[in-house]
Amino acid sequence: MDLQRSTLVSSGNVPFVYRLMRAVIRFGTLLLAPRLRMLKRESLEEAGPAILLNTHPKSFAVAILLIAALDRQVHCLVPSAEFQGVFRRLACWALGIQPFDCTPEEQEALLNPCLNALADQDLIAIFAGENSQSGFRNSPVAEFASKLAVVTVLKGQGRIQAAIFPVHWLFHARIGGPAPLAYVDNPIRANQFLPKVGEDAAEASLRLVEVVQSACSTNVFSLAEAEIEHLARELESLSREYLQAQWSERPDWKQRPEELQLSGFARRWFDQQNRTNPARLIELGESLAAYREAKRRHSLEHLIVETSGEWQSSRVRVAIAWLETVLGFPAALYGLINHLPAGIVLYANKLFKHVPKRDPKAEWLARIFIVLGFYTIQVFVVDFWWGRAVAGYYTLTLPLSGAYLWRYRWHARHRGRALVLRALRPFRSAGLVRRRERLLAGIDRELERSAPVAAMAGGHSTDPVH
Length: 466
What we know:
- It is a single chain.
- The protein is of the alpha/beta class.
- It has helices spanning 16-32, 42-45, 59-69, 86-95, 104-119, 141-155, 201-217, 225-247, 264-276, 278-306, 315-348, 360-386, 388-449, 451-457; strands at 37-39, 50-54, 74-78, 98-99, 123-127, 163-170, 181-184, 188-189.
- It is built from 14 helices and eight strands.
- Helix 9 packs across helix 10 and helix 11 (315-348) crosses helix 13.
């Protein structure tokens, strides 16, 4: 699908299909990302041609958010790899999103249409996609954008002042994540890089390219070096933990997990993500923290089981504890129902615990009075509905059910909890292993996808540790 001049109409003549599709996108954005924010958005809403360079690798999703956020029409040039699926292609057709891999042929074909759009005071958004992970140093996107800006100023003889705006995103790809946040960086004016005497436009644009590359490589949402190092150590520790579990079955294995370190390729991946997609590192940190917290809870549960007493060494006592846990639950529930009204009144008056300012004798008298008062009311209710005989039996069960409820509370805390945790321990351990494997498998997939970028940067292995 070529970029035709008919798709690059003036901002004052936004096509109906574009406006309709933008309205649908804005409605969907209100449902999925109601707090979408774009910092310094007003600089893009002002009249004037502008080239937006987006550093986020998720080009299609960011293009949709950009279109929804701006009132002006945005002509998006997105890598062709993003045009997958019928619905995506349909949305791209309606919004005028064009495939653009920045090959020499595409640059030559799209140069004049883009210049005409800038002459009409339009916005052009260029997305580098996964190539942006190299910080635009090895991508021709910055060169193409710089050439567009310089040639626009030269053709307009200074009347048209084109500017390049690096746009940085803090965008979590998962649904339900934090609100997307965009920051429009300070504009880079092309009129400050016009050719000098005896210099052609290509040489002038090269000076602009260096400035654009530097601006795009500095993400305002980047994490601090200390946080990156902490994430690297956490991932390194997780990888060692995984390898320790794998190699423990092979005691004759000479290499030891503690000898391994995070590979240079993985550390470059951290730097790449920090420049282009810091939200991914935030998600990684949250996942690692959630895993560590789950592991801490599992260790705590194991400690509770091990320190619950020597009774677990006897199968008979364990069987008796299980019987009381299961068969005693209905009796405890019956006692809870009987004493729930009195318990609510005691809780409302803060009589479950001793208050230093109150007399202990007065507290006990109040407790006894409240409990006996509710006993009396409940017995009268039973006598009214079911007769004196049933009320007599019910009267005997009230103190017995209350005493057993107190006993079952102790049993549940000191016996039942340990039994349940002990029974669930294998499932919790297997769940932790699966969680760790999913986390590492996701990192491995992302490292493999980043292999072409690493090859350009001189990387070799995609293993997280070596």
